[in-house]
Amino acid sequence: MAPLLEIDDLTIEAATGEGPITLLDGLTVSMDAGQVLGLIGESGSGKTTTARAMIGMLESNLSVRRGSIRLAGTEITAARPRELRAVRGRDVGFVFQGAGSSLDPLLRVDHQLDEVIRRHRRDVDRSRRRTMTLEALASMGFADPEHVARSYPHQLSGGMRQRVSIALAMVVRPKMLIADEATSALDVTTQKEVVQLLTRLVAENGVGMVFVTHDLVLAEEICTSVAVLRRGRLVEYGPVERIMTDPQAEYTRELLAAVPRW
Amino acid sequence: MSAITDAPRAGAAAPAPPGRVLEIDRLTIRYGRGRTTAHARPAVDGVSLHVAPHEIVGVVGESGSGKTSVAMAAAGLLDATEGSITANGRPVSTRMPRSDRANVQMVFQDPVASFDPRQSVRAGLRELRRLHGARTRWIADEELLDRVGLSAQLLPRLPHQLSGGQAQRVSIARALLLRPALLIADEPTSALDVSVQAQILDLLRTLCDAEGLSVLFISHDLAVVRELCHRVYVLLHGELVEQGDTIRVMSSPRHAYTARLISAIPGHYSSDPHPLETP
Amino acid sequence: MIRLLVTRVLLGIVTLLIAVTVTFFVVHASGNPVAQILGDSATPGRVAEVTHQLGLDRPLYEQYLEFLGQLARGDLGVSLRYNEPNAELVLQRMPATAELAASALLIALVLGVTLGCVAAVREGGAVDRVVTAVSAIGTSAPVFWFGLMGILVFAVLLGWLPAGQMQSPISLVLPASTLSLLPLAQVARLTRSAMSETLRMPFVVAANARGLAPLRVIVNHALRNSAIPVLTIFGLQTGLLLSGAVTVEYVFAWPGLGTLATDAVQGRDFSLVQAVVVVGVVVFVLVNFVVDLLYTIIDPRIRESRA
């Protein structure tokens, strides 16, 4: 069986006034359902560009130069806008950085969830959508989903907002989740709750997750395999235990040494 | 990375203080309406802390802990509602004279935002020299930049032409120019890459040793605080819940919240004293 | 909410007071209206007599206080020229202006928002360039010039539209379009800038990442979040629109408040001028109050801070 995610020789360029710049150079990684692949790197590593490319949402001046991204059977690099919109949300949920800045501040939580369900499950009626909405919130660990559903984003704490964002990404049960620095803006104790929530979602639903982070030690807490990127190149790739205990690349060793830990 | 033993200075006993660089006594800060009445919960509630010469002291807390309010008040950028703050025995407030203000300098999480976008590094230093006169004559621009590990070639650069780490070094240099007794650093490395963060932490340590600087280091990151600070204060909802020698606090926390904070540091999840609570 | 209402009403009264005070002293400084009302043949004795009858020979502050007293009782006074209650004169002319202004606002809002949206979504595209150019012209060229050009092109040269006066609904087209140009330009420009900012917000990017249809993202998320600045400028535009109406009505011989005001100023009919100003200010204050209420409907955060 083909892996859930297969990225092969992915190369992405940015058009600039002084000609093209390579942002990502020949990335090859893959991931199965139930796994968590960490994309690790500092700023300029190309980790966020890779994540965006996976849902075909590159910035307008970026383009895929060569290579392929096969995600749940769809070749993303060749997909039409219409196919891409169907993949987004339905096959892959995306959780962004920030404590819920991906929520529309003017709309109630249930309205936003309902909108996503209506888009991807056309056959589902209103009362069933309501049930799905509340179930999605309940599975995020909210004790009172009804209350959260009726709330506006600003009425929730940062951690709650981020869990609503995850609910939005998971509500139509995609096969894959991409979390792009999804916990970086949170307080440490909240970050831990959200990371543990994500771990549980992967285990219970058998989804695959790409976890993008700058924090190698955080990646150790959640990932099954890790790809370390530096300036658009893959410097190290393998099972997380091996990389944490026996890093091969000089850069990985530097990163590990720079993180304060004990 | 071996454990406690190579934690750089944390184990070293803080030098006995002849005087205190910073003394905060029962500081309370309220915002907005209800400043006088007890309407809203104060942002900072009866916090006392001090910094001795050559000491790096950490203030740790999550959002809403009041740590930034403490920093702002200690830098004289915000007035205490109750309580007192003194630096080298002189009162700190928003109305303090310029010479006293030079004595407590602050660096921020986003240094570029505190720079005039059209002012070069050199012009920024020149402005400070004009403002503070003789106090700033002790060092030339080039040497000053050298002390913070920057090349003099950066002098003509504008803020947007600096990397995040360079900008933070420049902001430290600007603070240093005024020969402050105390540097207040509010999350100075939170926006930086880890490798750059390590360099900035090194720089602060060096300045503390070489220039006799004392540092009040505000952070949400216990791991960083553990690596850098001699002593630490833990804030929760504006109140001080724990204080003490960094190593002691980290290895045997006395307050449940401190324990929870430690167990939330990446790499420590399995040491979880309390399982995940559903809010 | 009650406090908001009270502050709004107080603010409205202050605005009204400032406006009528300025008007009062400016018109009174412009000279004695009686000679003009009586015509050239009046003798100085007759002028003095009428001036006394109308109470215009009393000290200015006395007249001012009396005027304020009347206003407080809701009395707009009697026209010096027509010798009829001002309120009636204004009411007669109001529908024509209301029709003109409402049409102009509707055009400005619908076209302005649409053009602004398209320009923001296709930033740098053809529509964007046209909108930018047109709104620059629309905000800088004088209204009367547009009116005259409109008459010249559409009425005189092409003969498609009537040049003015209220005859049929179609006669509304030229004056309303002319009057709408300035607010249209402003609304389009503001919608464009507010939208292009909102379109870059994380929640809009996130909405796209959830696979929502582009039109839905634009209308349901981006436009809603851009509405507040657009509404604000829209409310302020009503003020400019009322002053624009004076010019447009004059150019198109439109029998509304604008022409009434023009005649009143020319005839030094203080009392009528003041009445028109009062009505104008009240409308302005009311519209902005409605806009303010709309904020509350659109944004739950504003709603809460006012609760």
Strand fraction of chain B = 15-25%
End-to-end CA span of chain A: 41 Å
Q: Judging by the overall fold, what is the CATH architecture of the largest domain in chain B?
A: 3-Layer(aba) Sandwich
Low-confidence stretches of chain A: none
Relative helix content of chain B: 25-40%
Most strands sheet of chain B? 6 strands, mixed
Count the E strands of chain A: 10
Query: Could you state the order of secondary-structure elements of chain B as H and E?
Result: EEEHEEHEHHHEHEHEEHH
- Taken from the alpha-carbon principal axes, the silhouette of chain A is globular
The gyration radius over C-alpha positions of chain B equals 19 Å
Read across the widest sheet of chain B, the strand sequence of neighbours is: 6-7-8-3-9-10
The counted number of beta strands of chain B is 10
* Low-pLDDT ranges of chain B: 1-17, 274-279
Report the helical percentage of chain A: 25-40%
**Most extensive interface:** A-B, 33 and 31 residues
According to CATH, what is the topology of the largest domain in chain B? Rossmann fold
Give the CATH H-level superfamily of the largest domain in chain B.
P-loop containing nucleotide triphosphate hydrolases
Count of alpha and pi helical runs of chain B: 9
Q: Could you explain how this protein is built, in words?
A:
The complex is a heterotrimer of chains A (262), B (279) and C (307). Chain A is α/β, with parallel strands linked by helices. Chain A contains 10 helices and 10 strands. In chain A, strands 6-7-8-3-9-10 form a 6-stranded mixed beta sheet, sandwiched between helices. A 4-stranded antiparallel beta sheet of chain A has the order 2-1-4-5, with helices on one face. In chain A, a hairpin with a 2-residue loop joins β4 and β5 (74-75). In chain A, α3 (109-120) packs across α4 (126-138). The radius of gyration of chain A is 18 Å and the shape is globular. Chain B starts with 21 loop residues before the first strand and ends in a 16-residue tail after the last helix. Chain B is built from 9 helices and 10 strands. Chain B has helices at residues 67-74, 98-103, 121-132, 141-147, 164-177, 194-210, 222-228, 246-251, 256-263, and strands at residues 22-29, 44-51, 56-60, 82-87, 90-91, 104-107, 182-186, 214-219, 231-236, 239-245. Chain B has a 6-stranded mixed beta sheet, with helices on both faces. A 4-stranded antiparallel beta sheet of chain B has the order 2-1-4-5, covered by helices on one side. In chain B, β9 (231-236) and β10 form a beta hairpin. Chain B is globular and about 50 Å long. In chain B, α5 (164-177) packs parallel to α6 (194-210). Chain C has a single domain (86-306), classed as MetI-like fold, CATH 1.10.3720.10. Chain C contains 13 helices and no strands. Chain C is mostly helical and 307 residues long. In chain C, α7 (143-157) crosses α8 (173-198) and α8 runs antiparallel to α10.
